[in-house]
């Protein structure tokens, strides 16, 4: 425990979570254990699919960071260490479920077959994501903390009013899932979203990836109780799951989504994990956290854990690893080429979709902007001519 101007900061020990009933199917050493409430039954191909998802996510993440360091992206928010939490939750959804991500949920989005270049275009600053939310069920990234939570609840209430909940028809019943971090639980939008979801029994699952640090603030600065217990005050179930155990996350989020689809209402899931890298590429985590903490969590690496399990079961072999390594390299090459080929949008494009129909004020602002842009261009050319 250390002191600060506003009081003591208590370090969070992963074992504290285990003592509070954390759901875990694979322990730190890759040994599978039965659980009285949660279980998944997957074939070898499905298990290898989860492993592939996590490995490709990590390569995507490392390549995106490298692209940012080269000046190709303006910023990057990494997901290293959180692969199991994101892939497990993402693979628990059905095609007609709807996903409301934050800015770090690349794994959850990629499991919905979103082109990874559409994610990188956001961080290059040329659009808000190139996918169609209606066709994919994946809504745009939200960079404002907790801002996606209330729209997720609103969408879930709309699904409910459309009669797409509790019908017993798997092709119709729909759930909504929203992802956020531990720091987001301190925002007012989070409290409002939990309350509205509970009061209206909305079919929404809140997946909190507790990665221990909200930028430089430890989770102890966000809450004096485990985050999943926030659900008690809102009147919904709260579940703590080992966020580095992809099978446990898949089981817990899958059960919560099924509960939502059947009309059982919302659930709060806290995935207990760790952000191994920086908050973003503009952050230096060595300024606020100890190397010993990072080393302790490195021993719980979600990919290493799952690899150990699959190898021990005779499911993962050298041939699959070789093919996956080749696929990872191909992904990296595609990302580098795709980002290099991205072009800047037309300046006036930002006005095109502000409203569904033409709006006089927006049109006037567009004309004013274009006039200023033309004047700026003219001044640049005149200056260049004078210098020459």
Automatic annotation (TrEMBL):
GO MF annotation: an example: oxidoreductase activity, acting on the aldehyde or oxo group of donors, disulfide as acceptor
Cofactor(s) needed for function: thiamine diphosphate
GO biological process, one term: branched-chain amino acid catabolic process
Pfam family, one: E1_dh
Annotated Dehydrogenase E1 component domain residues: 52-330
Keyword Oxidoreductase set for record: yes
UniProt cross-references to InterPro entries, sorted A to Z: Alpha-ketoacid_DH_E1_comp, DH_E1, PdhA/BkdA, THDP-binding
The keyword Oxidoreductase appears for this protein: yes
Entry keywords, A to Z: Oxidoreductase, Pyruvate, Thiamine pyrophosphate
NCBIfam families: PDH_E1_alph_x
Name of protein: Pyruvate dehydrogenase E1 component alpha subunit
